[in-house]
Amino acid sequence: MNLTVYLSGEIHSDWRNEIIRGCEKLNLPIEFLTPVTVHEASDDIGAKALDTETDKFWYDHKSAKINAIRIKAGLQKADVVVVKFGDKYRQWNAAFDAGQAAALGKSYIVIHPEEYTHALKEVDAQAMAVARSSDQVVEILKYITSQK
User: Fold this and answer.
1) I need a labelling partner for 77 at 20 to 30 A (CA). Which of 55, 68, 102, 116 fits?
2) What is the per-residue pLDDT across 17-46, written as a single tens digit (0 to 9) for each?
3) 3-state secondary structure of 71
């Protein structure tokens, strides 16, 4: 089974590459989609594309809407969504992506540490799996794509 997997969530660690490398090593038939993961590029695209913006609200608003084009397309195309919550920032956007995946009827897998369980209980309740590591996600994707 071929899959398209959208990797949503925190952008301050190497978890996406860990999953991609793990799946490539196993030669799994998966196409991966991601949001823009360079923080500055994501934050600045509104002002870059639509002229300089001095009001911080509109600066962020324009960038968020442009980023949403890519995110929405990725979520819609995905068969499975993986959402990672990290510890550097609160990932409200990741929770929103999980909600969109659920609303679109997409299966999603969540990755987060044990201490986030209470805060993410509603997100976890809709997830098909709650993983603690990238290796666990690779194992799930291996199983999903297997012909056995």
Assistant:
1) 116
2) 999 999 999 999 999 999 998 989 999 999
3) helix
Class of the CATH-defined domain 3-35+76-145: alpha beta
| C-alpha closest to that of 30 among 60, 64, 5, 47 | 5
The residues with which 3 forms a beta bridge, in sequence order, are 30
Task: State the pLDDT confidence band at 107, using cuts at 50, 70 and 90.
Answer: very high
Q: For the chain, what are the domain ranges?
A: 3-35+76-145
Distinct helix (H) and strand (E) counts, the chain:
6, 5
Output the 3-class SS for 31-50.
EEECCCCCHHHHHHHHHHHH
Q: Please give the single-letter amino acid code of residue 57.
A: F
Under 8 Å between Cβ of 141 and 24: no
Q: Report whether 120 contacts 127 (CB < 8 A).
A: no
Q: Model's pTM, two decimal places?
A: 0.93
